[in-house]
Give the backbone structure.
Amino acid sequence: MRKSRPSQDSGYHYDDGSVKERGAAGRRYDVQAPDASTVLQGYRPDISKGFEEPQPLYNPGNAAHPQSSMLLNINDPIQVHLLVETALWDAKEYEILSPEEVEDLKKQCQSLTQRIQTARQNLAVHSKYRDATLSMSKLYPDKKRSVDLNDSSKQKRGNLGNRKRGNSDEVREAELERAASEKRCEDLAAELWSLEKRLIEPEHRLLKHTAGILQMTHKGPKTNLGEDGHRGGIPGSPESMYTYHNARNSLEVIEDEFDERSFYRQLDPLNSPFGAFGVNQALEAPSTEKSKEHMQLISTTEQRLEDLNSALREVIIKVNPDHDASHTPTNAEGKSAQPGESLQDHLDHLQQSIATLDLEHGAAKRKTDEFNAATEGTLEELNRRIKGLLSPTHPELPEPPAITGHQTGVREQLHYFQDTIASVEEELTKAAAIAANSLVKKSKSGESDQMEAVLMGLWDIIQSGEEEIRKQKQERKQHRAANGRGAPDDSDTASEMGDPNEPFTLQSFSAKVQWLYSSATKLKEHKKVLQRQIKQQRELNNKSDAQKDAELVIKQEELDKTTDLLERTERNAIDLQEQLSNIMAELTKAREAGKMVTEAQAKGSVSLQEVQEQLSQARRLHEEELTNSHREASERISSLMDAHRQSQEKLEVATRDAQERIAGLATTNRNLEDQLASANSKIGELELQLQELKDNHGISSADVTSKLSGHEARIAELSTAVAAAATTRVAHENSLREKDRLLAEKDKEVEEISMKVAELQTEVVIARAELDGAYGSRAQRAAEVASNPAIQREIDAMTNKNKALQEQMDALHHKNFMLQGEIAELQAARSPAPAANNAEVEAKLKELKKELEETIGEYEVMTKASIEWEKEREKLEGEIDKLRDERENLESQLSDERVRMLGMKSPGDGSMTPGLASTSMTVLRNEFKKMMRDTRAEGLRALRAEQTERRRLEDELRAMKKVQGPGRSTLSPKVS
């Protein structure tokens, strides 16, 4: 049952229910205020009852929470489900506000509610004064009752009229006082009506926001496969499957303390304390009437004092529960036997309570001052530490404010702390910009420390390679000596390699590179000479021409297969390089998005701290997931590389055994054997050079390295096969079958590695989608970047670098394409005359391999730079998170202290009445507690929603992985 508002009888129909219905449709109201006397008449029943709220109906199953209708069966799942679906549909178009707007509306409602409470109390007090003046005015006869003195038949009434004229001044004064009191009550009623009208709009917006956010985050009831859809017949709800018994505990709305019963009951003068007086009683002596009125006023005053003492005692107990504020009523009923007997006692107790409250206020103020002093000292020490950290880069930073021991001092310390935090964030931003632009600066500066470090690393690799070559030559000498063969003369090569302990200088590094180039050129020339000698010797040996021609045909076929395999390897290497470039680009975008989110969070307001923390946590989780996936992929590729290396070692052992057997069987032509042995030594030197180049690029991608190692082993096998030209055809056929088997295994390994790369690419795409979902769309990120010039400059620099890298990659691709064309031309030219162009084809293969290794070296440099960027970014993010946590801890401590000190502050100055002060303080405390509960509830709901969303994404990711299975991913690039 709802109560009507004061404007119902005046034809405005401005009741609570109609306003809520029309407010739900989104319309605003400009209802014209009714007449002040009409509004006052509507409030008269509420004034007589002290604006008491009607007792709501209670749920027998849960007496702590009211229910709206006795017709509602909360245990009926169909009815409750229908109500939930209807509510969700109705709230679909409701406006959802931001946290700042919700906070502003709550503050507005709180302020209006306090003003309404004050206006109600004032209206109740002035209504009593008006009733008293009205009763006093009724003591005097009306002007219409005056009689004509010339009428002898109405002598008695004329005499009474003369007496009334003698009291005309008192009548006039009573009328003026009554009119003034009536006017004051009408003004207060009109003000109360206006405040209630103003309160409706923010309440409606908050209610619509609450319904809209619940409708948006509604997940439906949680089902259990082991049960029949619900537990105990209770369906799901927007919050939980167990909240139907507590359906109003999500967000407590602001209490509506209006009395909505009928306001328009006619005032019956006969019901007043003087309504029983007749005409004759009105003619009694004024002194008797005034005495009765005084006694009634005394009784009312006693009751009012007792109420004030009770309220003041409750306030004292709330301020200090340990304080003894007992108060004993005058009798069992709490009222005195005679009016005026307990008046002095009430006054004395009121004076004592005020003195006690003053003492409690003084103690609370002292505690507040002590806490403010301690807090100010802590903040001052923290500010001095931060100032000391920033003094090298910000010498103009002023000294922290001096300790004052007042609340203003704490506020100044906090302002100074906020300013210094802004300086720290500026320094961190500069450091991030320097780190982002470091690669561009280092590439432009040829004499920079980074380039010198890279050159020193290459120098160390070259020195270690030379040392390995010396060891291998020594082992080869010992092996030849054990077999009874003389060692070749390689003293010139050993002397040309230089001192193994030579220090690093740019001149020595340049000389070393030139020596490597000249050595490679000489080796190519020696190879051509040896090929010519072998050809001439084959022509001279007429006895085995047919056999050798057949062997050459076989070798030519093997060379064709090797060429095809090398082409496929190059194409796969290019594809893998493109995939890795795309992955690095995605990682760069992710880092840029992380930086934008971090800077946006640093510039947020205090009211968005919780949202910023959630975004930061989501960003860290996504980055950790991406890092973990990348780490797992690297580990899997490393394991594959180790397995491939082991197989390569086994293959090399088998190759060495085959070389020894072939050398033992070559007894037909000693001169040819010597030449072939010399060719084997030269080929060994070439293999050492290839091993040296492979060591120089040891930090390249694992998959590319494994494939190149496999192809190098394949080339070594072919070189060994050329050296074993004197073996029988049966041995060559067995060797070819073994090589075909190894080639099939290598192809299988290449295919598996391609599948692994495709899976990694799929995980990167999924991670990018998750990052887009966490940080918003590209348009939102672009808007955030546009609002921050520092980020825009950094992004422009990274964009320019990406363009430069892309141009380099395009040049490398074009170069690779040209090389492939040359290989095709070589193959076409080799087909008609395989024997004549064998040396030229091998030279081209060597050149192509060298160019491919140079391309891989450039990619290694980019990979190193990206790893350094990632380390610097993680370090800076750790420092930012640490500072943000310290700031949040300080803000949390300050908020807790404000909450604790809220009840200790004085409720008002001395001009306020005790009852009004206690009521205002109680309302403020209740509203603040309610606001804190709502804030915590919203935070918990947001956290649960985020956890649910994360679990859903994880389930989808696992499902996608299961669907893909062990086969090749559809995202793998096609090899043309």
Notes: The longest strand covers residues 62-66.
